[in-house]
Every structure is written in structure tokens, then in C-alpha cells.
Amino acid sequence: MKVVTTIAQLKKLVNAAKQANKTIGLVPTMGYLHDGHLTLARTAKSENDIVIMSVFVNPTQFGPNEDFESYPRDLPRDTVLAESAGVDIVFAPSVEEMYPTDGGIKLLAGRQATILCGASRPGHFDGVIQVVSKLFHLAEPTYAYFGQKDAQQVAIIETMVRDFNFPLVIKTVPIVREEDGLAKSSRNVYLTEHDRKEAPAIYEALNIAKESYKQTKDAAQAIAQATAHITTNTSGRIDYLQLLSYPDLAEINDQTETALLATAVYIGKTRLIDNLIFSLKGE
Ligand code: PAF
Predict the structure, then answer these.
(1) How far is CA 12 from CA 4, 89, 98, 141, in A?
(2) For a pocket test of ligand 1, which of 131, 135, 148, 154 has the largest count of ligand atoms closer than 8 A to its C-beta?
(3) Tens-place pLDDT, residues 205-260
(4) How many angstroms separate the alpha carbon of residue 30 from the centre of ligand 1?
């Protein structure tokens, strides 16, 4: 496995792979890898000749009062884990390498970015599509792999790929969970012992809402039941808990084929996100 830090080094390897007609799977990450990322890498490895994983904590997707500085970083650990999951190239650039100048040009994620995480993290998805579009140009992937845990992110990136004709296919990989249901996340390291005990209530609540909605088709009741489960079983604060159509992220109605039940909850100081995507077809 090669670890490269400059765009020039990466382009050399990508050009060689392209000349040899190899397929490239790209796994964009912000590092501090967990099983979720490694599942993305393993899936990419099973579907491509070469897997490139980017490890870059992207400053443009963090708000001024967010955790950019304290976001967990450990590149030596990440490279060992990446290699064990079959990654061929780790691309770990510096901020200066990725953003040498500020030419003032910004990308603007659209309507899908104004709700859910976008409502409480203004500009977040603009930063995500900025870095992801750069990574797509640099790695020239055949397939790019994203976790369903960031379902809104996936929906927005799919829109960008479609609207701007990026020549690649997005693959979404299911959420990887701890045994008690907590979705794996690099931010789980922030949880205190007390927080960690409360955190599985989030996934339980999503399942309660899903079953309730499937039986009654009453979105307000489903959300109320899930809210009650979180407020009764945790000291957390709900940022949002919403049922929407997926991937367009619009209000759910009788025609909706696929639903997204998504939540963000502050458990202690940690903001955790989780979701379920389920079919409503033929039900
Ligand atoms: O999902 C993430 O970890 C990040 O948003 C991504 C896609 C790597 C862009 O920085």
C-alpha cells in the first residue's frame, strides 16, 4: 500500500492505473477509521482493481464553533487499518495541498441541504461537495463509496453527480452498528461512559417510529413515539427527528416509495446522527 500526501503523487498513480485500464474505487474519509470505513474499503476492494482511500479532515465542512480542531486524527493507525482492509493508496493531503488559494469560487448545495443536518450546520454540505468534487477529479474513480449513516450527504452527492455529469457511480454501503445498535462513528470516542449507555436509545427510537409508521401511516404519531423513547431513556437533546421521502428529501406522501427516518441527537456534548431507510412500496 502506498501513502501519498500530494496531488502530483496521487495523479501519477491514478494515471498509471487508468493507462492499465484498471477500475478505481474511491473511499473518501476524514480518518480515525472504524468498522464502517473498513466495510466501505472492503466493498470497494471486492468491486475494483484499485482502492484509493482519502484521509482528510476537511475544514470547509466545519462551522466556526464545531469540532474541526479537536476532530480525532491518527494517520499511522489509519494506514495500518486501511492496508488490512485492502486499500492500495491512501491519499492524506494537508489543508494547504487541497486548498492552496481561495479564489472565492464556492459550490452551493441546493434544497436538499437546507433541512436535517443542513438546518443546524449551515454551509456544511457546501463544504462536503467542495471536497468531494475535488476528490472525484483527483482520483477519477469508477465507483465512489459512502456510508448510509450520512444518508443526507449521499443524497446530495448523488444529485451533484447527476446534475454535473460526473463520470462515476455512487455506491452506498449500509450502516455498521455496535452490538447494541449504536451506529459506528469516529465521534463515538467523545462519549462518556454514561453517554455510551444512553446512546443505543437512538436506534431503538428509530425502529419504534418505523414500525409505527408502517402500521398506521401516521408520521406525526411515529415521530412522537420515537421522541418519547429518546426523552424517557436519555438525557439527550433532539436536534431533529424527521420522516422524509428518499433520496429527494421531500415531505412524505402516499406516492412515496422509499422513506428516510433520520435523527440527530446530542448525547452529552456529542452530536450523534442515525437513520433508517425503508421501502413503502406495496404496503
Ligand atoms: O463523510 C465524511 O467523512 C466526509 O463528509 C467526507 C465525505 C469524507 C468529505 O469530507
Answers:
(1) 10, 12, 16, 14
(2) 131
(3) 999 999 999 999 999 999 999 999 999 999 999 999 999 999 999 999 989 999 99
(4) 6
* Fold entry, domain 2-173: Rossmann fold (3.40.50)
C-alpha cell at 262: 433520520
**Which stretches of 70-200 are DSSP H helices?**
75-84, 95-98, 117-120, 124-139, 151-163, 193-198
229 a catalytic residue: no
Hey, where are the domains in the chain?
2-173, 186-272
Phi, psi (5° rounding) for residue 119?
Answer: -70, -40
Cα(254) to ligand 1 centroid in Å equals 33
Kindly report, residue by residue over 83-99, the tens digit of the pLDDT: 999 999 999 999 999 99
Confirm or reject: Cβ of 53 under 6 Å from ligand 1: no
Burial of 165 (0-12, 13-18, 19+ CB in 10 A): exposed
* Closest residue CA from atom 8 of ligand 1: 29
CA of 245 relative to ligand 1 center, distance in Å: 23
Q: Which CATH class is domain 186-272?
A: alpha beta
Count the Cβ atoms, other than its own, within 10 Å of residue 130: 20
Q: Which atom of ligand 1 approaches the CA of 61 most closely? A: 10
Confirm whether pTM is higher than 0.90: yes
- 2-173 with 186-272: one CATH topology? no
Burial of 65 (0-12, 13-18, 19+ CB in 10 A): exposed
Q: Pocket of ligand 1, candidates 40, 95, 99, 128: which has the most ligand atoms within 8 Å of its Cβ, to mutate?
A: 128
